[in-house]
Amino acid sequence: MGGKYGSLVPKNPDWTTEELILTLELYYSHFPQTQPQTTDALVIELSTILRTLGKLTHGTLSNFKENYRSPDSVRLRCANFAELDPERSSGMSGSTGQKVRTVFEKYTSKKHLLKKEATKIRETIESAGSLNFHLDDEFEELVPEGGVRMKVHRAYERKESNRKKVLKSFKKRNGGSLFCQVCRVNPNKAFGLDTDLPIFDVHHLKPLSEIGQVNTPSVRDYAVLCPTCHRAIHKLEDCSDIDGLITRLNSNRPHGGPLCSR
Ligand SMILES: [Zn+2]
Ligand SMILES: [Zn+2]
Predict the structure, then answer these.
(1) Where are the domains of the chain?
(2) 57 CA from centroid of ligand 2 (Å)
């Protein structure tokens, strides 16, 4: 862990939109009159949450400066929001970054939406905290969605115990055989490779919007896919749409024909 990212991750990664949403929510709901201080319990709590999120996202915090998402950095972000807030100041700030400004402008008149989004992010981090993350997987870079919900989705899929259970249950329901639910191929058979190491992915089917509300996925929440179909389904808008992917595949190859024709 860490090695792969070692030279790539900057010392102070930019604040993500998700982090800024949590901070803005803190700013509005708990400190409408005053500036939060480094010693405020809620500031310390948010700092802890952001550091947890950092660990989930980057695998480790050891590449970052010690003050990564410290209570003081949370306080500073709140000060940035205060500079933009017309109720606090002129609403002008030259020093505030574009992303801070964008988040402020999007949510300042939509406090309900802000609360909703922040709650969703918090729940997702909570449920993710109990999972084992292996984020230095090359697949991660190919999934454009990013974001913490996507990471929970991938964590469910990567958890070895989940994978084993899903494959076992699938085999049982299908007379002892394994195959991709989309293209019907069994890569192990196709390549004549050891079946003790099945070349299958399990794909978590819950829509991303629902992840974070359910703690323990069941085997029914998964599809068994070959690695190719798994990558393909993540390119669809709705990554739970198995039938949609089957339809696409069938309409692009002659019946029973090869997967890809030249
Ligand atoms: Zn497949
Ligand atoms: Zn997936």
Answers:
(1) 3-129, 138-251
(2) 17
